[in-house]
Amino acid sequence: MHIPDGYLSPSTCATLYAGSVAGWYAALKRLKRSLLSRLVPLISVFAAFAFVVMMFNLPLPGGTTGHPVGVTVAAIVLGPSGAILAISIALAIQALFFGDGGITTLGANCFNMAIVGSLVAYASYRLIAAGAAIASKRRIAAAAVAGYLAINASAFVAAIELGIQPLLFHDAAGTPLYAPYPLSIALPAIMIGHLSFAGLAEAVISAGLVAYLEVADPKLLRKTSGITVGGEERLGAAQLTSAFPRRLWLAVALLMLVTPVGILATGKAWSEWSPVEFAANGSKAQVAAAATMSTATIPVGMQRLASLWTAPFPAYAPAFVKSAAFGYLLSAMFGVGFVLAVCLLAQHCLDRRRSAGHSL
Amino acid sequence: MNHRGFVAPTMMGFAQALSRPLMSEEIARRRGLLQALDPRVRVVGLLALVLADTFSRRLSIVLGLCALAVVIAVLSKVSIGTLAKRVWLIVLVFTGVIALPAIFVTPGDRMATLAGGSLHITRQGLTAAALLIARVETAVTFTTLLILCTPWAHVLKALHSFGLPNELTAMLAMTHRYVFLLVEAAGQMLESRQSRRVGRLTAGEERRLAARTVGVLLSKSIELSNDVYLAMQSRGFEGEVRVLSDFSMQPLDYAGLFAFLAASVAAVWIGR
User: Fold this and answer.
1) Residue B267 sits at the chain A interface (C-beta within 8 Å)
2) Residue contacts between A and B (CB atoms, under 8 Å)
3) Residue B206: its chain A contacts at CB < 8 A?
């Protein structure tokens, strides 16, 4: 997954460097607030640890081997900000000192593995292990799933970056100037290897490590466990609600308010056509041009499946609302409310199951 | 079934990692072109050439840059055999495997037909594969020349003088140092386990062994970071990192910088 120099165009490299710089800045700022001078040796040694972990060739089912990235372990022990910095530094050392991964593509590699990998690993681990005791087997399973998902999410992003190259960067004769395969080839080619082997390597090492730490050094699992340090007391739902950052609520509210801006955009997003929109001249011309066809007709499958489900708020505009902007706002409120309701219901079910477990 | 297990290949990887800096230090001490230049000129110049290689859209220009890399290597007393073994062969195998199918799957003007008409070699596919391989070979050669001819501490000082934040410079320096310490510790753990082993481990047992080894390594790393932090505090560290920068540019450095930048700009301009 370490993309070498020459596979990505300069503009892709620049864009992903910008994305990575934003991630590093946010991570550094967040860590500085909490760790101050403790930051430097901790991240440095952990980056060195991640570097060494990447050198382990693990035997995998099927007789093959694969090497982990260590991003999941970093996210579980340090949290996402620490993991982003530690893995980025390990990748920088690999590129600058060992020539593994390019220098122009360092931003892309850090974005894929350090930023996307850390965030996916952390979110999935926290979600699956939510409320589990430190020594729980659920934490081991959560680490395995988080590792598998993190590596595959990173690989997926890398595959998209490589797959868009021939589409965007080719000469007048159609010769691809960088990675030569379109998404239809790049995605399966990269994902098959990661879904079958590389993801397993990360899952095995993450699960094994959490199992080891549960016995040998459980305090290392506390930082991201959601469990208070004093006792094994978990934050209750009410405490969680009050601890939920107020600024995040404000951001959600602000985003809901600006949703009607979407009305200003003209045209239809690529591949989101309904059969009626597909039949419109503009869309047909777009499809015909992209598929090098003389004309585009409505696919039979699309026409057949389109009537299978009718959305209650089609096109974010409930039938009983006359104003399009208010329809957007209402849809945003409904969507956010629905997600919150599902989360609260899941929380309620988990709490009930836990209290039933305690009373036994 | 993989009969070599994980211990032997992993230990071999560790040994290779430990041997690399020794080789780099030996080459960096030689009296050659790159070694004679200020480290900042080396960093800027070679990175500019890597960028020019990425920007160039013409195969002839990329091949010209590759030839320039060979000339710089020879003048810097870097053996062509070392480059062939460390860079060219590895990149050729790795990128070649990736680039080869492009010859057949890239749509374009047909040049030849194989396998009874089911496979077509296209001009565009051939050019794309050659361009990719040449570009990657050239970029990795320039990067390797930088690594081989410049001690890591000088690379970091140079990056710091270009505005890399102090914290990041310190972290990169410390990480580099502790990579070798931890590689050595992990190697010793595996070696001691290997020396006490009778018979062959199953794949499952090897996975458990790997997880335990990594677990112990993690505990050691955290312990080490605590020790380092205490040592830093005992020396008066208060969160402010200072890096000494004692480089000074000589006329030869300015000439080198001009030559690197002129070659890069020319390559981008002609190869656009």
Assistant:
1) no
2) 252
3) 58-59
| Range(s) of the domain holding residue B82 | 29-150+248-270
B47 lies in the same domain as B182:
no
Structure confidence by residue, pLDDT tens digits, B142-167: 998 998 888 888 888 888 888 887 77
| DSSP type of residue A116 | I
Q: Kindly indicate the confidence band of residue A315, based on its pLDDT and cuts at 50, 70 and 90.
A: low
Same domain, B46 and B179: no
DSSP A340: H
B95 lies in the same domain as B212: no
Q: Which two tokens stand for residue A135?
A: 């020594």
Q: What's the number of domains chain B is made of? A: 2
Share of chain A above pLDDT 70, in %: 58
Closest CA of chain A from B258, distance in Å: 22
pLDDT recorded at residue A157: 92
Question: Taking 90 as the threshold, does the pLDDT of residue B90 lie above it?
Answer: no
pTM: 0.70
pLDDT of residue A126: 92
Judge whether B38 and B260 are in contact, CB under 8 Å: no
Interface check for B141 against chain A (CB to CB < 8 A): the answer is no
CA of A296 vs chain B CAs: smallest distance (Å): 21
Pick one of 3.40.50.720, 3.30.1330.10, 1.10.1760.20, 1.25.40.10 as the CATH number of A10-234: 1.10.1760.20
Do B132 and B263 share a structural domain? yes
Residues 6+ apart with CB under 8 A from A211: A140, B211
Domain boundaries along the sequence of chain A: 10-234, 238-263+315-360, 267-309
- pLDDT: which is higher, A296 or B220: B220
Considering the domain architecture, whether residues B128 and B182 belong to the same structural domain is answered as no
Cβ–Cβ under 8 Å, residues A109 and A98? no
Partner-chain residue, chosen from B14, B101, B206, that has the shortest CB–CB distance to A55: B14
Supply the pLDDT for residue A113.
Answer: 92
Give the pLDDT confidence of B244-272 residue by residue, as tens digits. Answer: 667 788 888 899 999 999 999 999 998 87
Q: Are residues B132 and B176 in the same domain?
A: no
Closest alpha carbon to B209 in A219, A58, A215, A67: A58
Q: How many helices (H) and strands (E) does chain A have?
A: 16, 2
Q: What is the DSSP string of A229-259?
A: SSSSPBPPHHHHHHHS-HHHHHHHHHHHHHG
Q: Please name which of A72, A86, A80 lies closest in space to residue A41, comparing C-alpha atoms.
A: A86
* Beta strand B110-114 pairing with B119-122: antiparallel
CA distance A186 to A179: 9
| ipTM rounded to 2 decimals | 0.76
State the best of A40, A167, A210, A214 to mutate against chain B, taking most chain B CBs within 10 Å.
Answer: A40
Residue B19 lies in a domain: no
Q: Above 70 in pLDDT, residue A311?
A: no
Q: In angstroms, rounded to a whole number, what is the distance separating the alpha carbons of residues B104 and B118?
A: 10
